[in-house]
Amino acid sequence: MSTPRIGAHVRDSDPLTAATERDAEVVQFFLADPQKWHKPKPRADAAELKASPVEVFIHAPYIVNVASTNNRIRIPSRKIMREHATAAETVGATGLIVHGGHVTKDDDPAVGAENWRKAFAEAHEKYGGFDTPILIENTAGGDYSMARRLEAIARLWDAVGDYNPGFCFDTCHAYAGGIDLVTAVEKVKAITGRIDLVHCNDSRDEFDSGRDRHITIGKGTIDPGLLREVVAAAGAPVVVETPGEHQADDIAFLRAAL
Question: In whole angstroms, what is the distance from residue 51 CA to residue 142 CA?
Fold first, then answer.
């Protein structure tokens, strides 16, 4: 088995320089403020990024919640997801990572999954699909999330599977969300049919804590050897979303371990 391409989530101002500093083969970054409903602006380095041998992934803003039953959240979420997918294409991105989102305690989670289906249906019917593949990411917390536990991911894929979305597997999110990492890759692939990207992060908190707090590999509660096994089994590009000052070490560790 070949060693996957490994990189990091880096500053959006100069991702290629950040890649060089970390010896990264992959970069992930934001195209706009992750906490605001901003349409991405054209990038001066778009052509350079597109031509670079460094593989690019774009992360959608955290506020995107396509599953929401609140029109004031769901409708702008669909719009900004499409805008970011279009902008991601201009930098040659392999995929746009979008969190699975959630509904409230008063909602049926199946409605959230159906809202995801409608988002894909709208994009395909009106725009011919997304300009960049959407990679839905599992999340760490929330009893009403769309992608925390395996049964929730299965419900979501029952709704959106016909549109063949991608999947981004986050190790910290899975561990904190109560998914056993020993069998996680096998079980996720049985549901989604694929893993397109691994976010390889250690967790500050214990198993099934529901808390999304990343930390440098080897400094948290996940066995580094288990992280290595997850990455090897997934067979997908890897991005570390750990503190920036130690990302080069995390990348070097994974390369050596693999």
Answer: 40
